[in-house]
Amino acid sequence: MEKEKKLEILRLLQENARRSPAMIASMLGVEEAVVLQVMDEFERDRVIVRYSAMVNWDKVDERRVTAVIDVKVTPQRDVGFDAIAQRIYRFPEVSSVFLMSGAYDLQVVVVGNHIREVAQFVSEKLSTLEHVNSTTTHFLLKRYKWDGVIFDDGEQDQRLVITP
Question: Which residue segments constitute the domains of the chain, with CATH numbers given?
Answer without folding.
Answer: 3-44 (1.10.10), 62-142 (3.30.70.920)
